[in-house]
Amino acid sequence: MNWITNYVRPKINSMLGRREMPENLWIKDPETGEMVFHKDLEENQYVVPSSGHHMRISAKERLKFFFDDGRYEAIDNPKVAVDPLKFRDEKRYVDRLRDAKTKTSLEDAILGALGKIEGLPVVAVVQDFAFMGGSLGMAAGEAIIRAFEVAFERKQPLVLFAASGGARMQEGILSLMQLPRTTVAVDRHKEAGLPYIVVLTNPTTGGVTASYAMLGDIHIAEPGALIGFAGPRVIEQTIREKLPEGFQRSEYLMEHGMVDMVVSRLELKPTIARLLKMLLKQPAVPKAVEPEILAPAVIQAEARP
């Protein structure tokens, strides 16, 4: 035991009032390099105030920001076979799953929930990119289908926040089968006349873009999100040409008709609530009318008999 390290130094630190400072108090803006206080960033829904850069957020944080008062009821995900192909690369697939579950506190990349936005009952589905890149496997596919079934049973609209690198390679063709299965769930939802809105976040690529992520009634993208099938580097290597500036980003896709609108995370909730009320043919909530302030001379005139 080193008595200088274990006793003398802590004693001196306590006498001088020193405190251990957490390392994550300040977060660096990837665009400008500016350091932002984590509390300010959290209060701004992880949108950097100066640059408007949208940081990635977890599925639970997304739902907390989206629903009224941050209150929601999670939808239980169906149980599926774990590691059906007994896949192994540098690590066993079951080990990767265990690590991802520990890291995110989720059962898989999809989290579905019931809640309200501006008083309107809604089913929301969020892909968490922190869970193996938001990849779509059997468990994620079943969770999405289950959320659509709940929305169908309750006759409620569904809002899906997509964030994924595509199909989960460790499940092979079983992962690819989730693309047509989720597409059928979307079609059933639409045939019932229920709205389906997709919010494309950074990144949304691969088979997810080729299926349910581009089948919404309305497609909204967060600013600067990467959206496409293959990545820009793969496309450049294939066609051997330099891609345009901002290619596959939200703003570029909106200009070329692939996305309906680009909306800041801070405005997503009121925008989606307004769109859903229009699709459901519900009247918008009128703004409170402020009482008219009369001039003193008018008040005196009205007070005369």
What is the strand and helix layout of this fold?
Layout: H1 3-16, E1 26-28, E2 35-37, H2 38-43, H3 59-66, E3 72-74, H4 93-104, E4 110-117, E5 120-127, H5 138-154, E6 158-164, H6 172-176, H7 178-191, E7 196-204, H8 206-209, E8 218-221, H9 232-239, H10 250-255, E9 261-262, H11 265-279, H12 296-303
Parallel strand pairs: 5-6, 6-7, 7-8, 8-9
Antiparallel strand pairs: 1-2, 3-4, 4-5
Briefly summarize what is shown.
The protein is α/β, with parallel strands linked by helices and 305 residues long. It has helices at residues 3-16, 38-43, 59-66, 93-104, 138-154, 172-176, 178-191, 206-209, 232-239, 250-255, 265-279, 296-303, and strands at residues 26-28, 35-37, 72-74, 110-117, 120-127, 158-164, 196-204, 218-221, 261-262.
Structural account:
With 305 residues, the protein is α/β, with parallel strands linked by helices. It folds into two domains: 17-55, no CATH class; 57-283, 2-enoyl-CoA Hydratase, Chain A, domain 1, CATH 3.90.226.10. It contains twelve helices and nine strands. The strands form two sheets. Strands 3-4-5-6-7-8-9 form a seven-stranded mixed sheet, with helices on both faces. Strand 4 and strand 5 (120-127) form a beta hairpin. The longest helix is centred in the middle third of the chain and has 17 residues, at 138-154. It is globular. The N and C termini lie far apart (95 Å). Residues 288-299 have low confidence and may be disordered.
